[in-house]
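Posting for a labmate who doesn't have an account.
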Amino acid sequence: MNKHFLSSYMRLIFLMIFCFCLQSCGSNDWSVPKALKSFLTLVDQIDDDNDTVGGFGAGTHNQTQWAIVDEWVELQPGQTSGDFVSRVMDAGSTVSWTDIMWTPQRPLYKELPDNGQSETAYSQGNANMTDNVLLMHMNESGGMIEDTSGNNNDGTAYGGVTYGAAGRFNTALDFDGTNGYVEVTDDDSLDIGSGLTIEVWIRPDGSGPVIYRKNDFLLTTANFTLYTNIGETGTLNDSVFSAQSIGFNNTYANTPVVLVTPVTDSNGNNYPIPAVSAVNTTGFDVSLCVDAGSSTCEATYSQETAHYFVFDVDKANQLSWIDAGTKSSVSTDGSSTSLTFGKTFSNAPSVWTTAQTYSQGGNIASVTWADDDMTTTGVTLIGCVHQGTGNVCTSGQPSETVGYVAIDTNTADIDTFQTGFSDISNSSWTPAAFSPAYATPRVMVTQNDNDGWQDPQYPWARDVTGLGMDFRYCEADGANYCDSHTNEKTYWFAVEDGDIMAPAETINYSSGTGSWVLLTAVYNGTTMSLYMDGALVDAKPVSVSFLNDENILIGRDGSGFFDGMIDEAVIYNRDLSPAEILDHYRRGAVRLRYQVRTDSVSPLSTSWTGPDGTGATFYSELSNSTPGFPFLTLTNVPDNQFFQYRAYFDTDNVSYLPELKSVEIGPEHYLERLE
């Protein structure tokens, strides 16, 4: 018998006995024991250098190259795509090829990690998921949109939302621009502190702009806006002259301005005058007082309803189009008191007023209106108490402190704000329509005219619905009801009930259409910034406090809807650094993918295939749900002696290239060592 054959035969018998013993003992460890490795040669199935026999240097480059200094495979400069075909790996006999592992320089073509996990394995680009409060990969085929941040803030899809669209990563949601959106219910885990990052991949298809909406922020395809809360609204019901205390929902550093308008007409033409007093940082007192031609409030009239508005003087006065404040010692006898605004407006504003004090000792409360002589710097106020049957304001009564809110309605930018006016004659009820309609509107009416001179004049509203209302002024000429008289210019505004939100600052840009774009909106407590595809678009100084009390809408703002696809929607309760933002862009814009093939002969002539056994799919980090390097199972790969892999390199931006440091194919295979 040939001496070499006998030696090989004995080694084989020894190996078979050892494996039988392992199996008999119930062991699942089929790795080759160290003692046997001395008889075998490990097949080189690792490419991690540019060796021309057993490394990347033995493969074939197509618009790729070996970077000598960095020691990795990369795209050639200026190329957006290329590939690398590996050398042929020879197992010596028919074997199974079961897994592929590779080491990129950074995570590429990989969704952000779930459950707050942070990556540490990569040399660069590790994702830090600290303070991640919302993470939606949009990979569902139906049902709820899962939040995988670990906070379980799942969203509900409504209207024209199509699941399973081709996404930036796996799949995306396709919004129809007509009525499709996702709503995430507000939760304490979504509360934003001093820092905020909103991140989302979008592919806009049409004019529907809205991407993210909450009362604190708005992100569209055209702008990023942070909102500030300049006040709140509410409703009060009151039996005649029954004082009640109203507590504010918001916190105010300084005493705010309170405006009140009656919105019902339960007592015919008898006007219910709001009597506001004791305004402080936590609330105010108020009653409704019906002027029926006597010196005191009538106690026999029906209950009325009023809307009230609270304006934060500190926050409102930071905005160019609004001025809120008080004027002390306003006379109540129908004479004039000059008011100088706290700023100069671009246009003459409309002015709404309500007395903030009640100094009439149980008698009829005062009303105040503005004359039509307003300029960009000030206006004349008329204060009046009507304590009897006379046709003019009563003289000799105490003055009041009057709260005012002046709004340049040409440039006003209050969320859900609508306004209008009419030159009303004979105290007639005049209709006003709301468009778009409100769910629960709150309205304020004022008079900016003084054609009636010293006659008592009362503005108010009735029949307020989501579609509109009636409004008028009421001029009392001695009777106990509104009288026919001269024309008066009467103004109104309306907002949705709740917090009064106004844009604190806006960054404008254009995302374009038809291509995937990563938008990242950031606020760090003093500055808001917008990034597009990892690059800074603009930054502006701003200071806001978040309310954290409203649901998040994805793809909708009121009646506006997003048209296009959305993928990887993320919110952090901190401001991401510019480096992190760029890293997140690169993990979506730069891609490494693989296909493999086996054959019984070399060179191989079989087709390249992905996980489903066809050439239509690829192995990539889309399937890597761990925070570490990709280690993927090969599927639908025939057992054969010879193996090759093909790496595909792609980038959307030639400034950022995919970098491949090593590839390893498993399991380990051994050849008999010949001596």
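Reply:
Got it, the structure tokens are right above this. The chain has four helices and 48 strands.
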